[in-house]
Amino acid sequence: MSNRYAVILAAGQGTRMKSKLYKVLHPVCGKPMVQHVVDQIEKLNIQEIVSIIGHGAEKVQAQLGEQSKYVLQEQQLGTAHAVKQAKEILNGKEGITIVICGDTPLITSETLEALFKQHVELSAKATILTAKVDDPTGYGRIIRNKAGLVEKIVEHKDATEAERAINEINTGTFCFDNKALFASLDLVSNDNVQGEYYLPDVIEILKKQGEVVTAFLTDEFEETLGINDRVALAEAEKIMRNRINVNHMKKGVTIVDPSNTYIDADVSIGQDTIIYPGTLLKGNTVIGEDCHIGPNTEITDCHVGNATVIRQSVALKSTIGSHVNIGPFAHIRPESSIHDKVKIGNFVEIKKAVLDDGSKASHLSYIGDAEVGKNVNIGCGTITVNYDGKNKFLTKIEDDAFIGCNSNLIAPVTIGKGSYVAAGSTITENVPGDALSIARARQVNKENYVQKLNQKK
Ligand code: UD1
Ligand code: MG
User: Fold this and answer.
1) 450 falls within a domain
2) Integer Cα distance of 195 and 325 in angstroms
3) Phi, psi for residue 184 in degrees, rounded to 5
4) How many structural domains are present in the chain?
5) Residue 194 CA: which ligand 1 atom is closest?
6) Does residue 447 belong to any structural domain of this protein?
């Protein structure tokens, strides 16, 4: 197999997005579009991936990290000018270079592999990935001669009425013979409506030199959607979302209402888990088998074990074990670790806390900066008082402790193993193991008080 290289165009500002965020960093199903492209490219056995960066260069670089090499295009003078920047890395190399835009997040490695295959089989110097679309507005059009052979590409803005009627478009992805590509880039001019150096002009240049130039017409138009504005972004999101959901369903996950379920690209879900409507699974979330998630639940960057139920709740950057029951209406905040068989009930907020196996906080509690042992019962309305306005302090509750309802545990404090805290206590000092601690005023009943009050009036 010949050497393969890739050039990813990601220097543009993306003016049509009307955004402070650079176009190729806009997420589609939680992942920046350029990252989608690079992740697909990586599957193709490529020797060298070169990203052309400009607007937001550091941010694009920070996103892709070591997956790519980078070349700066200081001024965005067009797609041909952009590719030319890769010369310092790729010039003179023997092999095939795929050029792809960072704004086509739906492309798959299967389609790109098919493009490579045709390119090699037809011994072409250039192969354009093309698609037929209902509305070609904005895209470059593929101009073929009477024999049906590709002649050139004309950009929408430069096209005549007759050319605009053509519905076969340039998807922006090409395979080139690497040496022929860099030789012809020097010949591209900017004599066009936009005053830009167009990469598609390389096609006509090679053709005029008598080289073999072909098109690979894919019937997967959806994959080639180029995102230039927010309308296309929403369209891509919808297509990607459906693709992700179908993929999970094929692997044995039940999604009750796929049109109302939002799963990011890198989420994984175990078999026989059921996802109810209104659920968002984001980031690098991993969900085990036999779980029930949702309805109306948002889980971000969490690791969830097996057979866990999470209803109407929010969880962020935490680990949640197996056979756990969360919600409805619970909030698990970052750095929490909820072990197996724990129950977190309604209106309970957990922050940076460990709850060991079998512990329960069933109603109306705040548990923050805490280490809770095994089989602890945290009564309704219990609060760990972790903050003095400046610093945060730790609450430790050892195994088998029972915290009565509506208790305040003023940290730093330790509640010993097996001890009881009486309901309504405000605990400021450590409670020894097996003790009963009562920290509240004794009840006084003033008999017949109301009668005395009435006599005074
Ligand atoms: C481009 C193609 C068009 C094709 C369409 C497919 C050209 C001239 N036109 O148009 O034929 O139908 O894609 O989506 O190539 N970029 C740079 N540096 C630059 C200019 C652009 O890196 O100087 C990058 C952009 O960040 C973007 C990509 O190249 O990722 C394409 O640029 P864009 O402005 O979106 O081109 P289109 O108008 O969509
Ligand atoms: Mg574009």
Assistant:
1) no
2) 61
3) -80, -20
4) 2
5) 8
6) no
- Tell me how far the alpha carbon of residue 149 lies from the centroid of ligand 1, in angstroms: 24
Hey, is 17 helix, strand or coil? helix
Please provide the DSSP assignment of 262-276 as one string.
Answer: EE-TT-EE-TT-EE-
Query: Is 456 a domain residue?
Result: no
Structural domain harbouring 432? 253-437
Known catalytic residue: 55? Answer: no
**Is the pLDDT reported for residue 13 higher than 90?**
no
This prediction's pTM: 0.92
User: In this structure, what CATH number is given to the domain that contains residue 168?
Assistant: 3.90.550.10
Ligand 2 centroid – CA 134 distance (Å): 17
- In a domain? residue 360: yes
Tokens of 103: 């704004």
> How confident is residue 96, by pLDDT bands cut at 50, 70 and 90?
very high
DSSP class per residue in 58-75: HHHHHHHGGGSEEEE-SS
In this prediction, residues 225-231 reach a mean pLDDT of: 95
What is the pLDDT at residue 1?
Answer: 76
Are 209 and 262 within one domain?
Answer: no
**Residue minimizing CA distance to atom 8 of ligand 1:** 198
pLDDT tens string 357-392: 999 999 999 999 999 999 999 999 999 999 999 999
Q: Rounded distance, CA 165 to CA 168, Å?
A: 9
Q: Mark whether 276 and 192 lie in a shared domain.
A: no
Do 258 and 218 sit in the same domain of this protein? no
232-275: per-residue pLDDT in tens?
Answer: 999 999 999 999 999 999 999 999 999 999 999 999 999 999 99
